[in-house]
Design goal:
Strands 2-3-8-4-7-6 form a six-stranded mixed β-barrel. A three-stranded antiparallel β-sheet has the order 1-10-9, with no helix packed on it. Helices cover 8% and strands 34% of the residues. It has one domain: Cathepsin D, subunit A, domain 1 (Beta Barrel). The protein has 186 residues and is mainly β.
Amino acid sequence: MPPQAQRPSATFTSSYPALSRVLANDVHIGEAFDPKQPPKQLPPLFTAIWDTGATNSAITQKVVDQCGLKPTGMAVVHTAQASTTTETFLVSIFLPNKVAFPSVTVSRAVLRGFDVLIGMDIINRGDFAVTNKDGKTVFSFRMPSAECIDFVKQSKHSTPVTSTKVGRNDPCPCGSGKKHKRCCGA
């Protein structure tokens, strides 16, 4: 049996001329579609913020109205302020460079300054990397995931951090020869 052909990666990169505290870009949002019959033209464009702290993606009432979306259900949404019940919608999301998700369940949310929140339901479908070299922020996304990005393995000067707990009477890991409780654990 011949090996299965690997699907080519769908990728994009967003760059900022300075360090950015927010990862944002424009995305197209529309009704969900059958992947075998993609839409002939891209749906409306909206501004999205990427949030690795959000479990799921969300849209504002503006997106619901402009796309003529109908609710498909209800969900309990937990935010830093409170928990609330809100409507859900089935949408298609087109990221930059036509990286597309034809059927994503999103909830309605109030977002200040943005129309769409891209959460971990999208981010964890591929590789997501953020760099801040030379005072410029660049973030890149590809799907499907192509490799495990491990900066420790790539670096010749780093050592992996282990999560072993040091007991109070164990030798201190700093190498002083003292008990941990009388050295760094004091």
